[in-house]
Amino acid sequence: MSETTFTISELAREFDLTPRAIRFYEDQGLLSPSRNGLQRIYSKKDRVHLKLIVRGKRLGLSLAESRDLIELYDPTSRNKKQLQAMLDAIDTSSTRLEQQLKDIQMMRDELFEARTRCLKALQENES
């Protein structure tokens, strides 16, 4: 019985990525496709790794953080170390996103105030 495999095009479609992005992850050592001539052949393990990368990206994890999680990934067990690393990464990402949200809200308020001052100055110039 042969293992299920995937082409770069199939994975690109499934995860809404470009083949170039997938090759980048391969260059970073996160994916290890076999080759059939020039064609890359991705395994189920590569697919899972790509899924973890995409999820990590969505959570705001850096590529290094995703790499750490991939290295801990063991599909046969959910060990304490793996779960704790995932919780730590989620907490770090959540803290970073909260700060970004505060920064965006502050910038929005400053832009609103600047717009109000500009409108007031414009009205004063028209008088």
TrEMBL record:
Residue span(s) of domain HTH merR-type: 5-72
Keyword Lyase applies: no
Cleavable signal peptide: none
Alphabetized Pfam families for the sequence: MerR_1 (PF13411)
Keywords for this protein: DNA-binding
PROSITE patterns xref list: HTH_MERR_2
Organism encoding this protein: Endozoicomonas elysicola
Alphabetized SUPFAM superfamilies for the sequence: Putative DNA-binding domain (SSF46955)
Protein name as annotated: MerR family transcriptional regulator
GO molecular function terms attached to this record: DNA binding; DNA-binding transcription factor activity
Gene3D superfamilies from the UniProt entry: 1.10.1660.10
InterPro entries recorded: DNA-bd_dom_put_sf, MerR-type_HTH_dom, MerR_fam
